[in-house]
Each structure stands twice: as C-alpha cells, then as structure tokens.
C-alpha cells in the first residue's frame, strides 16, 4: 500500500492547553508555531507514524507577562530548551472514532512516555478537492513530571497553579 504524507493545516488547527489557576478557574494557552511529520498506509491512520515539535517561544496565553514567565527557567526554560517534541511509538485504533496515541513527550530536557486519547473525525474532501482528516487529542499530564515545579502558595490555602495540564489539540490534516 502507498505511504501517504499528511501536513497540519495551521489555519484550522490549534495546539492548546489549560491549567487551573488559583484552584478554581482555567487559563488557556496555545503554541503558535509548530510542525509535524505524519505518514499513514494509504488513508488508514492505524499505526500512523507521527512526530511533532512546537516552538516554546511561541506560547500564547493572551498575557505577555505570563507568557514571559512561562518561557523563563521557572517553567519551559526556552533559552536552553526551545522546542517541545513528541514522537509516537503507537497509534492504535480503539473503535471507528477513537484511537490511543502513545509516545515520548520531551519538554525542558526531560522525556516521558504519555498515552493520550484521540477522537478521529474522519476523512473529507474540501471544496478545492483536498483530502482532510480531523484528529482531536485530549488528555491530562502533570507538569511536574517534566520539572515544571514553580508554584506559589495562596493565603487561603492551595496553590496558584495546578499540577495538571489538560491538553486540547485540534488538528486538521491535509493529504500531501
């Protein structure tokens, strides 16, 4: 079967995350600059080969001070670790609409194995004849697993930033 290459359509995709702030509200962020290499056997995504990288300096939480703090050594340490990378070890079909994505997430010089649920939205041709595929990747990781330990205690108890980071990755892929 022919190998198919896919590219991320950046105008219809978002690499997002949410972190609980002050124990009760979520702060959302995303990475503006990223790249991926995705290959499949024909149009079958099972066992797809996936590698991804994001430019840490492109983090955007709609607040320049917070973004600069995230880029600092307290969090991402962008100066020494400018890229966040993911290399899939498996992409396994659970049922018609769901997959499980497993692989190594490298951040701040630390690599850890992660397993994330993926909703496959299917294949569709756009009005210009391009074949598109939709993938929604969710899941939760603990930022402390990658050495992102900075926090601040709150006077009323609890902490400023939760350990859990919820991933919200919406990908529209274009067949090359």
Automatic annotation (TrEMBL):
InterPro entries: Lipid/polyisoprenoid-bd_YceI (IPR007372), TTHA0802/YceI-like_sf (IPR036761)
Source taxon at top rank: Bacteria
Pfam hit, one: YceI
Domain named Lipid/polyisoprenoid-binding YceI-like: residues: 5-174
Descriptive protein name: YceI family protein
């Amino acid at each position: 079967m022919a190998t198919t290459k896919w590219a991320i359509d950046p105008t219809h995709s978002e690499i997002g995350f949410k972190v609980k702030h002050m124990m009760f509200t979520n702060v959302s962020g995303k990475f503006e600059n990223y790249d991926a290499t995705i290959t499949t056997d024909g149009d079958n995504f099972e066992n797809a080969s996936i590698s991804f990288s994001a430019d840490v300096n492109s983090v955007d939480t709609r607040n320049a001070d917070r973004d600069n703090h995230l880029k600092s050594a307290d969090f991402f340490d962008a100066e020494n670790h400018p890229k966040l990378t993911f290399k899939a070890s498996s992409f396994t079909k659970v049922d018609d609409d769901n997959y499980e994505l497993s692989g190594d997430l490298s951040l701040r010089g630390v690599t850890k194995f992660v397993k994330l649920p993926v909703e496959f939205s299917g294949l569709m041709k756009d009005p210009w004849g391009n074949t598109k595929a939709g993938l929604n990747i969710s899941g939760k990781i603990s930022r402390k697993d990658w050495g992102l330990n900075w926090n601040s205690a709150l006077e009323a108890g609890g902490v400023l930033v939760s350990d859990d980071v919820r991933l919200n990755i919406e990908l529209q892929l274009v067949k090359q």
